[in-house]
Amino acid sequence: MKAVRYHKPKDVKVDTVDDPKLEHERDAIIKVTETAICGSDLHIYNGKIPQLSNMIVGHEFMGEVVELGKQVTNLKVGDRVVVPFPVSCGSCFFCQHNLYPHCENSNEKHYGPEGALMDQKGAGLFGYTDLYGGYAGGQAEYVRIPYADVGPRRVPDALTDDQVLFLTDIFPTGYIAVDWANLKGGETVAVFGCGPVGIMAQKSAWLHGAGRVIGIDIQPYRLEKAKKVANSLVINAAEQDVVGIIRDMTEGRGADVCIDAVGMEADRNTLEKVVNTVTGQVGTTNVLESCFSTVRRGGVVSVVGVYGSHYHNFPLSQFFDKGLTLKAGQVPVQAYIDKLIRLVEEEKVVLEDIITHKLPLSEAPHAYEIFNNKKDDCLKVVLTP
Ligand code: NAD
Ligand code: ZN
Ligand code: ZN
């Protein structure tokens, strides 16, 4: 089959590889009908998360069940399914507590994000490096799904692939970022990042009853898109004083909730310069720090943008002084997906309006390049095998 494999930083290729086979009675094989490129794939692409072998990448995908292991009784050959990106057994302590990306039975390698051997097991994710279990990803014609009795969900016939594909990752991710903040209604929600995840968080803020939604980015075309598809007020962080504007809008208090949907990709040139008062060193704030400055006292900061290394300027005193709540992590898609499919079915939310490019799988290298470099007003690429 054809599959997109990582070779070295900035180099993915469409290679011919062996078709996947059932390896366990709880496996399924699906024939991929659509797969997307995620901001998280760019971490591998840009060499920010180490990947040693030429693995098949991609964790956002859906398709048709073509083979089933004996123990998978909830699916039938021919079913159309979307597949959550965490690989999770469904029965360990963490899965039983809805903490699917912390499954104890999906990553035997015990590695953490920086490649260090951890003292506890970590998550298993499709197509997201050997550190996360080394599972072949879904940017391919076929993919093996471990624990297929737990993850994949059948999708209603009336919905197209485009309408449901983002249930695999970015809609649940945007949704949980807001859900963590327990909105009561009427709040001001500021979302840093108007990439696919940030825009999904902005759409989700309205679904949770926000009174005002603000999208922040440094790419004018992405700000325009956020205005259009998420009905957000927008601020260009490369040109405007985000903290000042949001404080002015909130009688000096700051936003009730700040969401970091940028993570370690933040363009450091655009970030605020700060001087460390103890060492005198000049550094830059990152988006997480901007969230801490922008959120009101007693507010919530949700971090869904990925950070893959230690960070030594964590604003602990501000965190303490403002009495903040901080939530972060990979999203337990399995815990949210059924509810979110219904929101799509009931037309409470539209997901496909962020797709700017649909390309054949064979054009994956070009697709990575335009998504990474924000060329051709690229916001979200869908690949069709
Ligand atoms: P993306 O790279 O398309 O979006 C990032 C956006 O941040 C871009 O629009 C970029 O212009 C903007 N940006 C860069 N520097 C900025 C700055 N200084 N201030 C404001 N905006 C800035 O990626 P995406 O697909 O939207 O994903 C966003 C993040 O979410 C990534 O880190 C990705 O890995 C992560 N993610 C996490 C989960 C999870 O489970 N937690 C799931 C999916 C994606
Ligand atoms: Zn993703
Ligand atoms: Zn588990």
Task: Note down, in words, how this protein is organized.
By secondary structure, this protein is α/β, with parallel strands linked by helices. The chain has two domains: 222 residues, Quinone Oxidoreductase, Chain A, domain 1; 158 residues, Rossmann fold. 24% of the residues lie in helices and 23% in strands. Strands 3, 4, 5, 6, 7, 16 and 17 form a seven-stranded mixed β-sheet that branches. Helix 4 packs across helix 10. The protein is globular. Nicotinamide-adenine-dinucleotide binds next to helix 1, helix 4, helix 5 and strand 9.
Low-confidence stretches: none
Judging by the overall fold, what is the CATH architecture of the largest domain?
Answer: Alpha-Beta Complex
Please name the fourth-level CATH homologous superfamily of the largest domain. Answer: Medium-chain alcohol dehydrogenases, catalytic domain
Tell me, what is the CATH class of the largest domain?
A: Alpha Beta
The percentage helix is 10-25%
Distance between the amino and carboxyl termini? 10 Å
The total tally of domains equals 2
Rounded to the nearest angstrom, the radius of gyration is 20 Å
Q: Which structural category fits the helices and strands?
A: alpha/beta
Secondary-structure element order, N to C? EEEHEEHEEHHEHEHEHEEEHEHEHEHE
- Per DSSP, the total helix count is 11
The rough form would be described as globular
Bound molecules: nicotinamide-adenine-dinucleotide, zinc ion
Biggest pleated-sheet summary: 7 strands, mixed
Number of strands: 17
Q: What average pLDDT do the residues reach?
A: 92
Protein name: Threonine dehydrogenase
Domain Alcohol dehydrogenase-like N-terminal: 25-151
Pfam families: ADH_N, ADH_zinc_N
Keywords: Metal-binding, Oxidoreductase, Zinc
